[in-house]
Specification:
A hairpin with a 2-residue loop joins strand 12 and strand 13. The chain is an alpha/beta fold and about 900 residues long. Helix content is about 50%, strand content about 15%. Strands 8-25-24-23-9-20-22-21 form an eight-stranded mixed β-sheet, with helices on both faces. The chain is built from 35 helices and 25 strands.
């Protein structure tokens, strides 16, 4: 061959390499210095200390810290060591909350590490004219690399030679079968990654054959490196819940400062209180206005949701992702291994001599069995069984034939023993055929298997026209079709070659295979549509195959479009935005295309979930609002980039996760409504008492106790409330929907007014009357503390549902029952044990006063039941769509 007629020679020349001797040691060293090591660079991660400091940027936390500083200054000027209790308690709360935030929110950046692990540790190269085994990190552009079946490809490169070469590239392209490679193939410059048949890529493996190539790109310049670069470039977007809580935090912080400022100015100009005393009242108000436990409780509720999801085969890596999944309006799913089984399966056979077509089962007719037997004998693939599950070894198209024959009582090892192979001509990508000669009771039978268009001209017997019609019909159904022919010969030729044995064949028939859809996915797609979620298929596979699978699953419906990567690249962003709602299938797409699709949906305000298992999915998994990786077939790269991993690789698990996510968000709304109702009641109590009595009915320690103990435990238990049964009948939440939507805000204000009124009434009873004891400030504070604390405990039952408490069963949440009991016991302990009561500025009351406090605390239950009955508090299902 004239080397100058070979296009690959231009690549070799451009890299100053030599296809026969490789690089010299000096050239390799120079290239290593110029291009760097063949490894991936990682983005610098935040230190543990930086993540800890980030926890203190919340306005509510800053106000609490300011309150702690003021309290500490007051304690320094005082003479009682007990005064240090309050600032120390506030600091303890803030630090504990920060530690919890770091431990729960820290997202491990495993994606780049996994990409590094996928790089081949060693490589066989030509240097100075000799074959050498070197570290993969030392491979440089210009190196001549030798590869064979079983090898990992250490770097991207242009093939110089290939012999029946096939590479497993599903992690990069999404194709479920190995890609056939050909050094002589001519490829268009804009060909998709999966169609570059004269190239091999780093991180992929050689499934069959052998080859030699010149390295064209290493490290971050390789296709794997480009993906690593995209992973580094993608930022972790703030989730809808984080945005809502951050906005709520700002509002509460600003509100607290305004109220504190007003109280301070009022006390300074219109009362006789000392300036320092006014400061402490303002601090009390700040403490009452801020739900100190909210960040920690929301984190705990999310963590509880994570535990629930683990039981449903979904592992969450980042807590806010739980809620995000619940608001998903689009699920962009990879095809191979996610919607399909990632295993080629023989589904149809047509036997030519008798014109018999059958679906593959374990009870096929004799005519089809003969076709399967001949097909199985003409393969190099094998299957083994582990605990009843078939393990495929070799080319998936071949092992699908072997498995079908096995299921029909013809295990390959038995077939090979009965009909030993006498000679063979290996598969070649040029002729697209493979032939074997087997012994059939002393007769020598040639069996040839391959593409119909390649085998048909070699046949002299059989209905080729009917075969072409059957081949076209199978292809239209996205089946991969192989034809089988045979003949009997007297003697094996001295030279076994395609020319000597692949002729005068009898056309035996066709077999069709496909990577079949997961049977449970059809129902999952129906549930998605019922829940207002649009499923979209994004794959590196061919458009015909992808469209057929999408039609079968119900992903593509009448009027929906299928778009290829080339067509997508020709669209402007504006055109994509206009058409994105109508496109249900994207085929032959690159990693950049996947990110573009995800961001097109996000630009419309949709919350996008992306599922996938390959390296090619990783950037889009990270760019999506929530990435879902497959746990069994998924690469470590995909798992590292995703927010959630499905341990059973089951698409239906996503639906369960969406349902759980919606339920968790609903529970968080209940928790927020419950806590803020308390805070409004506290603010009104302190504010109005200042106007009437010129003093606060509750001190900071009492407010902290109510916010963290009597409120905190029931709030956590509310987070464990079961998911409402009709939650998947609702449309997805808009990304900009406020946390107080559907009258929750009005309900919270109403609750706050009710709590404030009850607490002030209790304070007045103790202040002016105090049956059986001395009236005054301390008695009033004790009554106010008891009523407000117990009020919250009983009210937590109201917040369980918008349905009547007696309709859902008042005590069906065992966690709430336990939390309520503990909260009541602790509150009574604080109020009734003299040393503890003294520390909290409380006094012992007459038993009758405790009964009055209990009666006032129970008032919210009948009030809320009346509101639910007359429709002022509606159930979510009545507000849907």
């Amino acid at each position: 061959m004239n080397p100058h007629s070979d296009p690959s020679e231009l690549v070799v020349k451009e890299l100053s390499a030599n296809r026969d001797t490789g690089l010299s040691a000096q050239q390799a060293a120079q290239n290593l210095e110029q291009y760097g090591k063949n490894q991936l660079t990682a983005k610098k991660k935040k230190s543990l200390f930086s993540r800890f400091i980030d926890q203190f940027k919340d306005p509510m936390i800053l106000i609490l810290l300011a309150a702690a500083v003021i309290s500490f200054i007051v304690a320094l000027n005082g003479h009682d060591a007990k005064e240090f209790f309050e600032p120390l308690l506030i600091l303890l709360i803030v630090v504990a909350n920060a530690i919890m935030g770091v431990s729960q929110e820290s997202k491990a950046e495993k994606a780049l590490d996994a990409l590094k692990e996928m790089s081949a540790p060693h490589a066989r190269v030509l240097r100075d004219g000799t074959e050498q085994v070197i570290e993969a990190v030392d491979v440089v552009p210009g190196d001549i690399v030798l590869i064979e079946a079983g090898d990992f490809v250490p770097a991207d490169g242009r093939l110089l030679e290939s012999a029946s070469l096939k590479c497993e590239e599903s992690a990069l392209t999404g194709e479920s079968v190995p890609s056939e490679k050909d050094a002589k193939a001519e490829v268009a410059p804009d060909a998709p990654l999966g169609d570059r048949f004269n190239m091999v890529y780093s991180g992929c493996s050689v499934a069959y054959g052998r080859g030699r190539y010149v390295v064209t790109a290493t490290g971050m310049k390789s296709e794997m490196g480009r993906i690593a670069g995209m992973l580094s470039g993608e930022t972790d977007d703030t989730t809808p819940l984080q945005l809502k809580l951050a906005k709520l935090s700002r509002i509460l912080g600003i509100g607290a400062l305004i109220i504190c400022g007003f109280i301070f100015l009022y006390g300074f100009f219109f009362t006789q209180m000392e300036t320092l005393e006014i400061f402490m009242v303002a601090v009390s108000l700040a403490v009452s206005a801020i739900p100190e436990g909210l960040p920690a409780i929301v984190t705990i509720v999310l963590a509880i949701g994570v535990q629930r999801m683990v039981k449903k085969n979904a592992i969450i890596r980042r807590l806010p992702a739980v809620e995000t999944l619940g608001s998903a309006s689009v699920i962009c799913s990879d095809k191979t291994g996610t919607l399909t089984q990632n295993r080629m399966t023989l589904v149809r056979a047509w036997q030519a001599p008798d014109d018999i077509a059958e679906e593959i089962s374990d009870q096929n007719g004799e005519a089809v069995k003969k076709l399967l037997m001949f097909g199985s004998l003409c393969t190099d693939g094998t299957i083994t069984f582990e605990e009843g599950v078939a393990k495929h070894l070799g080319d998936p198209t071949e092992t699908s034939i072997v498995l079908a024959a096995h299921q029909n009582g013809m295990p390959k090892e038995e077939l090979m023993a009965q009909h030993p192979r006498l000679a063979e001509v290996p598969f070649d990508s040029d002729r697209k055929l493979m032939s074997v000669v087997c012994d059939f009771d002393g007769k020598k039978v040639v069996i040839t298997k391959g593409a119909f268009d390649s085998l048909a001209p070699l046949c002299v017997e059989g209905d080729i026209d009917k075969g072409r019609s059957e081949n076209d019909e199978m292809s239209e159904k996205a089946l991969r079709v192989l034809a089988v022919g045979y003949k009997t010969i007297e003697e094996i030729p001295a030279e076994v070659s395609p020319e000597t044995i692949e002729n005068n064949l009898v056309f035996l028939g066709l077999v069709g295979m496909i990577d079949p859809p997961r049977p449970e996915v059809r129902e999952a797609v129906k549930v998605c549509r019922k829940a207002g979620i649009k499923p979209v298929m994004i794959t590196g596979d061919h458009v015909v195959t992808a469209s057929a699978i999408a039609d079968d699953l119900g992903i593509r419906r009448e009027g929906d479009l299928s778009v290829t990567g080339v067509e997508l690249q020709k669209m402007s962003d504006a055109e994509l935005d206009d058409k994105v709602d109508d496109i249900s299938v994207y085929a032959r797409v690159s990693p950049e295309d996947k990110i573009r699709i995800v961001k097109a949906w996000q630009s419309r305000g949709d919350v996008v979930a992306m599922t996938g298992d390959g390296v090619n999915d990783a950037p889009a998994l990270k760019a999506a609002d929530i990435g879902c990786a497959m746990g069994i077939t998924g690469t470590d790269v995909a798992k590292g980039a995703a927010d959630m991993t499905l341990t059973d690789d089951n698409f239906t698990t996503i639906v369960d996760a969406v349902q759980e996510g919606r339920g968790i968000y609903d529970n968080i709304r209940k928790v927020v409504g419950y806590l803020l109702g308390t805070n409004i009641g506290e603010v009104l109590t302190v504010f109005l008492a200042m106007l009437v009595w010129n003093e606060s009915p509750l001190v900071s320690m009492q407010l902290l106790w109510i916010n963290l103990v009597t409120d905190g435990l029931p709030a956590i238990a509310l987070g464990r409330e079961n998911v409402e049964p009709d939650i998947m009948d609702q449309t997805p939440r808009p990304k900009d929907e406020g946390i107080f939507a559907h009258r929750l805000g009005a309900q919270v204000v109403m609750q706050g007014v009710m709590f404030g009124a009850l607490t002030l009434f209790a304070y007045a009873l103790g202040y002016y009357w105090n049956f059986g004891g001395t009236p005054g400030d301390h008695a009033g504070q004790t009554m106010a503390f008891l009523v407000l604390a117990m009020c919250q405990v009983f009210h937590s039952y109201n917040m369980r549902s918008r349905h009547s408490l007696f309709k859902i069963g008042p005590f069906t949440n065992k966690y709430l029952n336990q939390a309520a009991l503990i909260s009541l016991v602790l509150t009574l302990a604080v109020a009734l044990i003299p040393p503890v009561a003294s520390a909290f500025a409380l006094v012992i009351l007459h038993p009758a006063m405790y009964l009055i406090a209990l009666g006032l605390s129970l008032v919210p239950i009948p009030v809320l039941e009346i509101f639910k009955a007359i429709g002022l508090v509606k159930h979510e299902s009545e507000l849907k769509k």
